[in-house]
Amino acid sequence: MNERDGLILVDKEKGMTSREVTNYISKLFGVKKSGHLGTLDPFAEGLLPIFIGRGTKMIPYVNDEMKSYSSVMRLGETTPTLDTDSEVSLTKEVPLLSEEKIKEVFLGFIGTYKQKIPLTSAKRVNGKHLYEYAHKGIEIEEQYKEASIYSLELVSYSDNEICFNVTVSKGTYIRTLAYDIAVKLGTISYLTSLKRTKIGEFEVGFSKKIKDITASDIIPIKDIPSEYKGVEIGAELYKSALNGNPFSKNQIKTNYDKIMLIYTTNPIALYKLKGDMYICERGLL
Q1: Catalytic residues
Q2: Does residue 214 register a pLDDT over 70?
Q3: Which residue, 219, 265, 244, 198, is CA-closest to 46?
Q4: Sign of torsion over alpha carbons 240, 244, 248, 250
Q5: What pTM did the predictor assign?
Q6: Crossing angle between the packed helical segments 99-109 and 174-184, to the nearest 10 degrees
Q7: H/E/C letters for each residue in 224-284?
Q8: What are the DSSP calls for 159-176, one per residue?
């Protein structure tokens, strides 16, 4: 297993695309394979987990169902993209609001609701991204998806700006959520700031700006948090694991249903218990 196989937690800065950050990390460590978890728009910042080398094999097995953000929304104005990537295109009066009123509206969004997908998103319809239709001025039927809001906390409200923290389901559009909140408050809005603070078990506090990343920041595959628990095996099972052969429960001394077989500190494969047998899900070499 190469020392440059694993995961790096990057604190993405504004102005860069997620792909640009991923490409930078790939060149920095001289790896051909790389991928990121959860795309951040160029105007957004914060946590961007980047998998490199054989670490990319773990992407489908990492929990990213819940994400948290720290955001700022400006009331009384909006833009076509609902963020700072485009100019203000519409204004509307902001009614007199109290923090109590804002918290009341926030409470109404907790749970699941149908959220309109922004026309500037990468969602595909009939084989094309929504933003492709938007750039060509082609009108299509509005697209919706279910979004789950787990928590919504007001941090502050002043000068028509609401600072808030939110935890949502994977794929939720925070700029759309902010606009929907503004409508309930009797006005309109757009995001002036968006920072992702958490994805699953990963937190932005353990990430670094790309200029500060070194090889010591690579999290080895065996230490990447997932549902697959590490289980050390001996030489007698090593060759069988390399070939993806099944194992009986008697051969693998563990109570876990999902396991990562490790031989001399090197992760070999992911296995899942089916009946009385552990079946190979994916090799990691």
Answers
A1: 41
A2: yes
A3: 198
A4: positive
A5: 0.91
A6: 120
A7: CCCCCEEEECCHHHHHHHHCCCCEECCCCCCCCCEEEEEECCEEEEEEEEECCEEEEEEEC
A8: TTEEEEEEEEETT--HHH
